[in-house]
Amino acid sequence: MMDRAMMDREGTFTGNRGLEKEEPLIFEQGSPGKTAVDLPEPPASKNRLGGLERRAPIGLPGLSEPEVVRHYLRLSQKNYGIDTGFYPLGSCTMKHNPRINEKVARLPGLGDLHPLQPVSTVQGALELIDTCAHWLKVLTGMPAVTMNPAAGAHGELVGLMTIRAALEDRGDARKRVLVPESAHGTNPATAAMCGYAVQSIPADDRGRVDLAILRERLDSDVAAVMVTNPNTCGLFENDVQEIAKATHEAGAFFYCDGANFNALVGRVRPGDLGIDCMHLNLHKTFSTPHGGGGPGSGPVVLSEALAPYAPVPYVVHGPDGATLVEKPDDSDGKPFGRIKGFHGQFGMFVRALSYMMSLGSDGLRDVSGDAVLSANYILARLQDTFRVPFPAPCMHEVLFSDRTLKGTGVTTLDMAKALLDEGFHPMTVYFPLVVNGAMLVEPTETESKESIDSFVDTMKHLAERAAAGDVKFFHDSPYLTPRRRLDETTAARNPILRWHPPSLDHAAE
Amino acid sequence: MRYLPLTHEDRQQMLSVIGAESVEDLFRDVPADALLSDPVALPGTQGEMAVEQAFRAFAAGNVSPSSAPSFLGGGAYRHHIPATVDHLIQRGEFLTAYTPYQPEVAQGTLQYLFEFQTQVALLTGMDVANASMYDGATSCAEAVMMATRTRKRRRVVISGGLHPHYRETSVTYGKYTDLDIHALPADWQDSEDAGAAIDGETACVVVQYPDFFGRVRDYTALADACHAAGALLVVVVTEVVSLGLLKPPGEMGADIVAGEGQSLGNAASFGGPTVGLMAVRGSFLRQMPGRLAGQTVDVDGRRGFVLTLSTREQHIRREKATSNICTNSGLCALAFTIHLTLLGEQGLVRLAELNHANAVELADRLAAVPGVDVLNDTFFNELTVRLPKPAAGVVDAMAERGVLGGIPVSRLYPDNPDLRNLLLVAATELNSSDDMDALVATLTEALS
Ligand SMILES: Cc1ncc(COP(=O)(O)O)c(C=O)c1O
pTM of the predicted model, to two decimals? Predict the structure, then answer.
């Protein structure tokens, strides 16, 4: 007789665990002669490759269609997605991804359009881009938008380059960008890519930008102030209008990181707060899928003053319908250049517009309302269990520190790993950097109360278990995931970044 | 509203636990004058049926390349995508996951990225590849930044055979970091000597393979010239299917390969999203931008994968990071890798042969049209022809007759009168003989 404990100890013959199968690399499967794509025999013709044909095989494996389907299906089963369960990854807005968005993005006449078809043959696409742009402008209360950026960080780059172009145009070379300590890493990285020195602004004891220090550091050498609002602690920057005023008085521009726009959509227009420039992550607020890391889309809304400097291309309307301005020389403004191939992440505009049209102006108001309500509910229910470093209310996400774990031997990371066994995706951990052992929980508006309650109850349970001194349990977590804790140190010290045929010895590359 | 699970009762209960009167109460940190009391002036909620109809109307305003003979390339190619690709990438566990920060529950993503990196390295003939960039143009720009950073030199030589969008994007990226970009004029006559432009200050030379005009050129000597001067050779590939048939850039001595992977697994989607490829020689590994998946073991000794070498990246290194990239093109990389796995060695080679054979047929048929000159001696699946009149008008005339007959080079080089009559035409496995009949007929008509 085999009981459960014995099975856990001895495992199975194959290493599989029922539905959860071990899956080798594609390179360890198949044979070169197999293929899952039957193509016709090419007609015989004299090749025109100029003697540059490949001489050695590429080394790709060959698999049949059923083998390929199983490979990826099994891999998918080792992944946690929003479709699996609660995914409160703070700052990432892991909300439900409606499937109608996927369907319409694939319609013939949208998904298959070539970017360089004659503009007369893509009038519907240009109208779609324009409509998406219109929604974004109305929602943010800003007069202009550039649709080009491929993601949030790319939007930051476009925003700062627009600012730099505007400053240089008025003969005002400035050297520094002020960035709060709590900012996402992309903010300082972007400022550096735009040729600016980064100066950090500390947070005050309310977790907001320290206005006094900001004022002190604002001088005629500052090109821009980059503030995330709500900030990465999940707090609304109460002084945002004063920050805007001080920034403008110093002759600088106010860049807002709009990654957290989900807290505000339909209720607050950043344009009313005095910003000059803000990127939106369509893959956060506007539900385009995160896809295991991307793609994203990061349109940037702009003030009147900045709009002329926005990059090409953009859509304009003329007597013959819509057209694209693709070259700076064809522009009425002074575009700083081009930032990407073709015309932005069109497929993401389709999805985001489908989402916005589904919700409408009333539904989008409920999005921010429910997102903020859910985060505050988690805050209220967990505030006696975990330390809330800054006073309530929060906005769409709630930040906890590891203070109550101190002395237990259990860390924020251990909490995250224990959550995995309980069937939750962990919150964002160790970000923002302004509190110790940060746990940033963003429920979004697409979780039911039952789901949130279950998460809260689990967090309370784990906290009790930590307090009870069950350290070994935590250090060995997770137990039930497809893999347990992975050795990241060795991975970085001796990087293996690709498969090699077993006969070759490649220690490092 | 169908996407919002909270009921009125839920909201009331939650508010009472919070101790707030209303949801508006929770927005009290927002300055009162900035808090809207009513919905903004946009249409209200709509059901799925109405939304779908609205998008069908947008689609109806376009000419779908799937239902018209289409010969467009220029960095975005129409290939047959097996049904399996789109089916698999829409598995919720792939589609709705994010960057694999918790590797214990992201082995699916991490393993396919590791496989993707291996495939890209094999195709390009390079040592290692990253887990994707936004697109080919930004990948090229990042390659330029990386080259100047590692060589500690400012000068960049860009070939006149590079896709103009890639050149323009690289110029933009370099604009505020003080790069000295020396872009050579459009090389439509195949007369460029990029090697002559290299000097002791040159960090890299950027060429495209096959180039923008479709030509297949051997860069081995150029690589040697670069290396002799302490510069790097960056090779850009915009049509990755070509590598099924062509000698890989790594064998020619490329130091960095920056590419566009759209051709495998990804529809053109009016130009985005697509997937940027980047592969390098091993010694540049730690200077690479973007994510890298690496192999390791878990505490039970089982093989697994993690994101690695993240000390290069913005979330650790902040303003000293190799790039600001965070979100990349994960799902497009998945589509790429699934398509390539389906093809396998044999399928990819066959696909490349078909593309080439169709392009050979296209070249022969175009050459027979009175007044048309085929400029290319060599090509893979795309070539440049010279027409007796401006190509833009000809393309519009063909479009009116339902044929997407190519890209007027002037669309990308509007200011160069030498290029006004040039037309870029591509043929893939999807172009039938009937398509070519239609192209030849409408072109002949438009020229007469
Ligand atoms: C606050 C904040 N800013 C910027 C970014 C960068 O956006 P992306 O990943 O789309 O480049 C993110 C998300 O990753 C973020 O959370």
Answer: 0.98
